[in-house]
Amino acid sequence: SPPPDVEFESAVELAAAADAVVVVVGTSDRAESEGVDRTGLALPEGQDELVRRVAAVNPRTVVVVNAGAPVALPWRDEVAAVLLSWFPGQEFGAALADVLLGRAEPGGRLPTTWPDRAEDCPVLSVTPVDGALDYAEGVHLGYRGWARRDGPAPAYPFGHGLGYTTWSYEALDATAVVRAGESAQVNVTVRNTGARPGRTVVQAYLSRPSSGVERPALWLAGFAAVDAAAGQAVTVPVRLTGRVFEHWRPAAAGADAGWLAEPGAFELRVGPSSASLPLGTTLLVTVDD
To answer: What is the pTM of this model?
Structure first.
């Protein structure tokens, strides 16, 4: 095959002459696999340079990221769009064409937080020392760790995802009092404010700033997908199980280990991602004597 510099020049030349460009980047089993830890978050083998050189000659560049876990995207503000495909199967080509051409909605939402830079991560070192790994973050792992710290925001927060339309969050209705161990139902009204049908995922998070036990700054309590036509408002129920209000109590003198509800006020916030929660209310959890 031609040397890398020749391939780069060819890609740039083709991109400059094209109406639009699709660049597929990502990892492989050489970079990430079961039982193998990555040494960093950067895309391997000069892919960042490829994206930047192509985007420099064609502003209509779409980058498809084919990876199984978060990677750094230092060029994300230099391209027209970024599409995360994960590790797709044999119908990847047909599915990608449907999404890029607008025949299908890219309706997924991130189950992980994607940092702008690796060094921004609340937890970065996961290498055991003397055969042991200290999980010092405790309950504050993943997006929960990001939510409790002051510092740079992630590139893409937990729960983030866009489609081919836009949404507004208009109303939140929830039962004010919840008995411990019982579920609560929250009704959220969202409106499709774009020009075509679409799908969004309504996400509900809980927090409790004043608590007698250590808790995350916020935690995902429930979610629901909703489809709506252009301009349509839809009210979607989001169920919060009794467990999301509980914490784990380790075994102690005179008490068995188990899940326990702490009575009092919990703050409920709702929105399209963990970093965008425009609606809110207070739920009061009561415990029978």
So the answer is: 0.93
